[in-house]
Structures are given as C-alpha cells and as structure tokens.
Amino acid sequence: MIPLYTTQQVRDADSYAINTLGIPSIVLMENAARSIYSALIEYANDFIKSKTVGLICGKGNNGGDGFAVARHLVNNGFKVIVISLGAEEELKGDALINFRIIKNLFNEYPESKLIVYQSIKDLSLLDNCEIIIDAMLGTGSRGVLSEPYKEIVEYVNKLDAYRVAVDLPTGLDLESASGEVIFNADLTITLSEFKTGLFYNKGYTHCGEIVKGSIGIGEEYYKKLHVDDYLIEPEDAFAGLPVKDLNIHKYSAGKVFVIAGSSKLPGASFFTTNTIMKSGAGACFLAFPNSIKILAQQKIESAIVFSYDDSSKGFLSANNLKEISEKIEWADVIAIGPGLGREEETQTAVREILRSYKSKKFVIDADAIFTLQNEEYKKVNLKGKILTPHHKEFADLIGIEIKELENNILTIGKNFAKENNCYLVLKGAPTIIFNLQGEAFINSAGNPGLAKFGSGDVLTGIIASFQAQSEDIEESLISAVYIHSLAADLLLNEKSEFGYTSNDLMEKIPYAIKFIINSFV
Fold first, then answer.
1. Segment 188-202, tens digit of pLDDT
2. Got the DSSP string for 53-74?
3. 287/290 Cα distance (integer angstroms)
4. Residue 195's closest CA among 24, 410, 514?
5. pTM of the model as a whole
C-alpha cells in the first residue's frame, strides 16, 4: 500500500531540508531538475525524435525547476524553447538564478530560445515541439485559473505533443483534486512523494502516468509522518484474498443471501449472484419474486433461487420478511439492492430488514441505498456495514449536489464513514474505499470499459463473496475492489474498452484472482 501525502506535508519537507538538514534551496532545485530530466529520458524517450522540447515556466519555484531542467536538456543535445511567464525583474531567488543561467547559456546554443510571454501568439513557438513541459504553478495553484494561465493551458492542451507536468498539472487544486481548466498531462513527475490529489477526481483524469522525482532528502523523513490516504497495490489484493483451508466444505466456504431483482430490473441480481459463486463463496441463495422465478432459474448458474410469494407484483414487500428471515439468519453476508426496485412497499421492507438485523454483515447497493435517502440512513444502524454507491447515489443519499461531492470527495466520504461507523465504497474512476477510522484507499486498477450497466453489480458480488469468506472486512474489501478492476484490465488483452460487457467482466473474475495468486506465490 502506497502512502499518499498532503500538499502541506510535502511543503514541510522543503522546510525540513533547508532548516534542519541545512541543504541550500538552490541545491534542492538542482536535485529536482536532475530527477525530472532523468524521468523524461526514461518515460518520454519514445516521443523524442527531433529532440525538440518546449517549457512554460512560471515566476516561482516551479518555474525555477523548469529553467533548471532546460539547462540539462540543452547540455544533452536538445533544442529547447523556454517561455517564461515572468520578466527577469519579476523573478527572484532560485528561479531568478536559473533564469539567468539559461539566458547566458542559450547564447551558445542559437537554436534554443528563451522568451518572456507577452501574448497568446508567443505560444506558436511550441507548435513543433514533441514534448511540452508545464512548470507554471506547482503546489501553489488554487481555485480557478486566472489569465494568462487559462489561455496558455487551453492552447497547449490542443497541441499534438507529449505533455509533461512538473510536480502537478497547472490548474489542478491538490486539496480537492478539482479544477475547471487543467493542463492535460501524459506524464506527471511529482517531486518528493506521491500526493493524494494526483490520484482521484481531476487528478486521476489529468495527470497521466505518475512518477516520483526527488529533491534529495530520501524517504526516512516521510516514514515518520501520519497519513490517512493510500493507493492500493497488487500486494494488497493478494493480502486480502480469502484463505481456503484444506478441510473446507460448501457451508464453511462462505454463505451469501442475495436480496435483489424485480420484474422491472431482473438482470442486476443475476450479475451479483453469479459473481458471488465465481469469487469463491460456497453457497448462495437469491431471494427472487415467485411470479418471475423462471427468469432467475434460467440465468443463475450454481446458486439457488429462493422464491418468495410476491402475489404476482414482481417485487419484494414487507409481507415477505417472514419468508426470507430464515435465510437471512443462515447467511454470513447479505447482499441487498441490485435491481430490487423503488416501490414504496420494497423500500419499507429494505429499511425493516436493515433495522432488524443489526449484527449481520450487509453489502448495501443500488436501490437499497435509494431507500436510505432523506436521512433514513440515520434511523438504521449501519455499524460495520458496507455501502457501495456511485457518486450520484451517494450525493442523493446525503442530500447534496454531485458537484459539491466531487469538489470535496475525501472529506465528505471520510466524515460519512466515521459518523456512521460503516465502510463506504464510492464507485467511480477511481473507486475509493473509506473505513471506520476515516482513512481512504484509492484503487489503482481499472479502465473506462467499466462504465457499463452491470459493472457495479459484479463489484457487489465479489465484495459479498469475499466478505462471506473472511473475518477481516477491510482487507477483503480492498482485495475485492482491486480484483474487480484488474479483471477489466485483463480483458484489454482480448478486447478494447468499447467491446467487453459486464458479463465478460464477471467471467474474468476467477482469472483475475488467479493472476494475483500467481504473482505472489
């Protein structure tokens, strides 16, 4: 598991290096520049043919890093175009020192140019650059971009070039991973350590590949810091896999009861139920309306359909609670919600089930989450339970606009999980898990092909299955989320993101589990 740090923690590292270790700030900048240059050669080399690189450098230390990188590029045979957003008299400190160095150095390399930005026309000098490096603002970026940054970012984002961000893309607010106009990087070379805001929300969509640069203080300093946010690794998926004892039998291998499906939305329940069995559970029953049970019997592969008397209504009601109570008691885990429907009678039944079985493990999804809106969730004991909404479902659940959620995902998610003593799996790109202690675990696998009907139902199935097979809720939850996305990534070896379905995803789950096992055994 990779720890992720706040912007302030990384800023404090600079202060520690200067004031405690006694490293001059100009040395830190030089260390950063060397590491950025090395990363460029390692990760962007395939995009370098004519060795033409453009840099846009701001007035602060991020710009100073850019000026220093320009020197390394020129000294290694690159043609470099540097656009400075500050005139010499506007710069100070280490940025000014490195500006003056390349100003003098470029006298020896007439093909390279250093100009001070005056208007949008100056950006035409970047049109033929193979690589464009963003060294404009760094961690000082907050809120909506002002001019000229906005027009520069919009212009550069349209160019046919490989784009590299120094520390973070300009326009990305690291505190909330939000922004309106953001430099669209193919590669982000983040300095010191990985920062949380790079890996979710707009950071996830605008950073491209993320690698670490260095200011030269090593990792020991960071190991002493407290962190609440983590990036999930394949090792974590392996650690959370259920253990299969040699003397296991079908009822000790995990028992799941699925309360899902209705005449309007039967398919979701099939994805969830079949995935449960493909993820290793030993026994699974699907509670399904008797009037349409033939649909389930045709679609369910190895689980058993437990039909309840729906009086031909096609959905669950409170009248059925006595019928299904024995199976709720029997199960290690209850998965509730996919395709269940939103009829008032069904909502009443769901809330009654959650109130009546406080000590049972639940995975609450889709329509079951809908029933908890308007603060109904506060009337239900969610302790230890797992909720799996996507962004819109979660925003509706807690009564806020989705934009408010997306501009403050981590804080809102952490607060909800802590206040309700539950686990929150916020499905999205990427999926984020929040635990009872207010920690966040950001998934690092997956691709856009997951954005399809049924994908979330498959995730509910693997979560429920792993929960039934394990005593450790958190570890098995992390493993389930990662393996779900890994299955999608494995499908890219056979099909494009356009071509695979949620049925393909479900079928790939056993192979994803095997891939993880083979990688670490």
1. 999 989 999 999 999
2. EEEEE-SSHHHHHHHHHHHHHH
3. 9
4. 410
5. 0.94
